[in-house]
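User: Fold this, then the next.

Assistant: Folding the first:
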Amino acid sequence: MTDKLTVSVLGTGIMGAAMARNLARAGHTVRVWNRTRAKAEPLAADGAHVAGTPAEAVEGADVVLTMLYDGPATLDVMREAAPALRSGAAWVQSTTAGVEAIRDLAAFAREHGLVFFDAPVLGTRQPAEAGQLLVLAAGPSEHRATAAPVFDAVGSRTVWTGEDGAAGTASRLKLVANSWVLAITAAAGEVLALARGLDVDPQNFFDAIKGGPLDMGYLRAKSKLILDGPLTPAQFAVATAAKDARLIVQAGEQHGVRLDVAAASAERMERAAAQGHADEDMVAAYFASFGSADR
């Protein structure tokens, strides 16, 4: 297998567009599709072919990469692509789909003779644009040479979690990692909301924890977005974070684990989205601590 591939990217939102752009820069032939075509059109300037349908996008592809909203949306799009899928092609499934949905996606892959890779990524807009994502991947070792050039183009490192993508080991790890990200993002927002409510200068808080075990770059970066902006374009949008938080809560429930912080984070994200912050960076959940008109 040559290391220059024809790669179809289905879903060109924040992450998918950046991944497609880096694949093109790496010399691969890239075909892209998005339900809202306007989000895919700018990729033509990077050398990608913008397809009108999922089937057009996947025709002749060595690798199909999906980066869509959730599991059901991914399955719907792959069904649209089904008539043009090539048996033996690799399917790199990078959508944060949750544990249950991965089984349905893997079943579709088996039905259509696709080599299935469960391959969610860790990172937001900036590392995606820089090709510095962390790829969490599970899939058969005998076919990894096909997927490796894709992972190398979009990420700085690949962590392999197993041989069987259908087992969802990579997606399970992604949920664990996202539970931490969502928890500290929600906590950052609440710290600043409480400081505001108690008339405490946030800088005094940062000075108090400076250099100690409670200090962290992520806290400072997210807090800066709240205090100074901008909240758009989002690194990771409120609406998407809410969806991921619900997947985490559901996965916990299905395995006998109660996740109070994740459930509260989901509720905060959903409330912020309802207040009009859905497309802003997820730290805009800060505003859920106040009234809808209080910005």
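Now the next one, as you asked:
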Amino acid sequence: MRFLAHRLLLFVAALFGVSVLVFVALRILPGDVAAVMAGTAATPDRITALRTQFGLDRPLITQYLDWVGGLLHGDLGTSALTGRAVVAQVGQRASLTFPLIILSLLIALLIGLPLGCASVLANGRRMRGFLHVLAIVGGAVPALWSGLLLILLFSRGTGLIGIFPSQGFPSEGWHNPGRALSSLVLPAVATGIVAGAGIMRYTRAAVGDVMDGGAIDMAMACGMTRTQAVLRVGLRLATPQLVSVAGLTFAQMITGVMVVESLFALPGLGALLIGDVGNRDLIAVQSELFLLAAFFLLLGLVIDLIHRALDPRLKAADATGTDAGDGTTGNAASKGGE
């Protein structure tokens, strides 16, 4: 409970810092926010009306407190461009972006975990070299390039094997789950290939740390084959580190899919944020940036709690006052980066 209370206090403090940073950053931009939203051809009366409509003529501290008060009640403000509530726009776009991220993460895990274990189990020098090069090349390929390649190979109309739609999302959304899911396959694969290469490297490093600790040798001494020991013992002991890596990969995909959404013309959160920035809808941008930052912080908190629940060494560290487990995770991270 003490650990949970400490993490929650840090989470709340970080949310406060993010809210201040986002609010101040948009207020110190050159020019008047209302003039920026109104555009270059706006009349002074139009600018004055916008300042009154969005409360920009009030003191900054009052504006900040009103905005934070709205956030606490689930009110993210109103878009100056569409006149719709920002929370409704974000919810509609998130129903596309988050399924895309989840599907991308599943593909990344299906690629990274088996190939990472194969890198550990490979006996031949050539096979180990091939898997090492595969991990480097997979991580170096931009999602934009892999997406273009997938369109040329598998898109309907232009691809060599026309299986999946190349762009767009069904107007009926998830009411037609088959069409909706098929439109996310190519962008999910494009994102998952890059993320899968990273998970592959971290899996190899994490399981390698377990092997260095002697757990695999002990399992083999009890009658397991090397493959059984790696898959049944090594992966289980490396699970806390892999959960952390999967969570960080999920967080990175939130920004990574924005490029893929643009390539495949998907109306997701990335397209919403880019469109609002381009159309100078700064009131909506303010809340959208805060939501993205808050989700990153929340995801970090959840990963921290899951990691602690899976790793008994971190629980035992409370009684001794040490920081058990950090060294193992750091070694895996450094080896995965190599």
